[in-house]
Amino acid sequence: MSATPQGSPATLPLAGLKVLELGHYIAAPFATRLLADLGAEVIKVEPPEGDPVRGWGSQVDGHAVWFSVHGRNKLSVTLDLKSADGKAKLRRLAARADALVENFRPGQLERYGLGPADLHQVNPRLVIARISGYGQDGPYRDKPAFGAIGEAMGGLRHLTASPGQTEHPPPRCGVSISDDLAGMYAAMGLVAACWQVKGDPAAKGRVIDVDLVGSVFSLMEGMLPEYGLFGWVRQPQGAAIKTAAPTNTYPCADGKWLCIAGNSDLIFRRLMAAIGRPELADEPRFANNAARCENVAELDAAIAAWTRTKTGAEAESILDAAEVPCSRLYDMRDCAEDPHFRARGLVLPVQDPLLGEVLHPAAPFRFDGVSAREMVRWTGPAAGAHNDHVFLELLKEPAE
User: Fold this and answer.
1) How far apart, in whole angstroms, are the C-alpha atoms of residue 356 and residue 294?
2) Does the keyword section mention Manganese (predicted)?
3) What is the rounded distance in angstroms from the CA atom of residue 231 to the CA atom of residue 373?
4) pLDDT digits (tens, 9 = 90+) for 292-329
5) Which of 173, 187, 245, 374 has its CA 20 to 30 A from that of 299?
6) In 3D, which of 137, 101, 311 has the Cα closest to residue 319?
7) CA 35 vs CA 31, 40, 208, 223, 266: distances in Å
8) Over the stretch 66-100, which tens digit does the pLDDT of each residue have?
9) How confident is the model at residue 219 (pLDDT cuts 50, 70, 90)?
10) Mean pLDDT score of the chain, rounded to an integer?
């Protein structure tokens, strides 16, 4: 199967940028999905059997539902990089590209004869973003890793536990957050390097090294300097946070949970009036945030006593009217049906030739003059769907 896709609208900021993806599973494909949403031409190079992630999750007639989003706006070609022909085609693709994103284990591309030194021989200005578990050097370089390992070693999973909970392990957040973070950082680094190369006719291509562990570790706010200066190790916070109060998640009568952030003095006063406890706002022990943090257990108990008498929607409506920041904990049904998500175009009904009509999340950025729908130009294709378009039309190879 082959297809000729529509081009990127000139109004998209990365229209004209040519990117190769040697990605599998999550991190590199997530990086290139962002770049493709922004208008870059992304050629996803898959093994003949396709990206292994095509076998993940729910399926329709053998096609992975997730891949509709994961592979959207990308050209899919299949190559056997172990073969001489596959390597030769990859080099020709690299010669016309501005950038390449890969997430093999360190050293794998070099073993194929396709490492940065090899690729820079055919394209000295090629930007290469490399994503791995632990990075391209260091003592853990050759260890295998998936997203859960990035969360664990980067410091995030330690924080997701409930204080004092030892019976159950700290939960993961439910998605492969370290892969997504690494993909975002790789995309950011790639665009920065391409900007530098574009601005200097004599510039050489750069190699960008991003790893899952370091990507998660970068989010640990002030925890490293606190440890270095004072020896402090931040402990699990549960649903609250030690530096602000009241900020927590409270049970409601219908089994829903309501997240409430009432930690500024003015908002705290409005919150106490809304829950029928205005006298607490005048108590000296709740006079400011520092005092509230010292007495947070009493505050949380008072708020929870109120939320338990309301459904999640009722409590949220009352606090919205009082201008207190709050939200029920949304599941995907809530997201898909919420009028704000729909009005902002965050939920897009899209026709997928492999699946029928599916819902896609919109790109996470908006540009004037470009609709959310224009940024989803096509859905994730079948493996090798664009072989003829890429090899015959773009590379001008003779038909076999």
Assistant:
1) 55
2) no
3) 50
4) 999 999 999 999 999 999 999 999 999 999 999 999 99
5) 173
6) 311
7) 7, 6, 16, 32, 42
8) 999 999 999 999 999 999 999 999 999 999 999 99
9) very high
10) 94
Assign domain 18-218+344-394 to its CATH architecture. Answer: 3-Layer(aba) Sandwich (3.40)
Q: How many CB atoms lie within 10 A of CB 226?
A: 14
pTM for the structure as a whole: 0.93
Where exactly are the structural domains of the chain? 18-218+344-394, 247-335
Q: Domain 247-335: which CATH class?
A: alpha beta
pLDDT tops 70 at residue 1: no
Considering only CA atoms, which of 395, 390, 400, 394 is closest in space to residue 46? 390
For 41, the 3-state DSSP assignment is strand
Using alpha carbons, select from 259, 294, 283 the residue that is nearest to residue 272: 283
Name residues whose C-beta falls within 8 Å of residue 298's C-beta, 6 or more positions apart in sequence: none
What is d(CA 178, CA 214) in angstroms, rounded to the nearest whole number? 9
DSSP letter at 237 equals -
Selection from 400, 386, 303 nearest residue 7 by Cα: 386
Over the stretch 325-352, which tens digit does the pLDDT of each residue have? 999 999 999 999 999 999 999 999 999 9
215 vs 135: CA distance, rounded Å? 10
What's the Cα-to-Cα distance from 48 to each of 91, 103, 174, 355, 385, rounded to whole Å?
17, 18, 30, 22, 11
Instruction: Please identify which residue in the block is written with the tokens 């908002």.
Output: 267
Q: Amino acid identity of 1?
A: M
CA distance 30 to 129: 13
Read off the DSSP letter of residue 389. Answer: I
Q: At what angle do helices 27-37 and 177-199 cross, to 10 degrees?
A: 50
Contacts of 286 (CB under 8 A, 6+ apart): 268, 280, 292, 295, 299
Tracing tokens 């309301």 back to the chain, one arrives at 310
The sheet with strand 247-251 has its strands ordered as 247-251, 257-261, 326-328
How far is 187 from 171, CA to CA, in rounded Å? 28
> One of 179, 180, 300, 352 is an active-site residue; which one?
179
Q: Please confirm, yes or no, whether 265 is among the known catalytic residues.
A: no
Looking at the chain, the whole-number percentage of residues with pLDDT higher than 90 is: 88
At 129, list the tokens. Answer: 């973003």
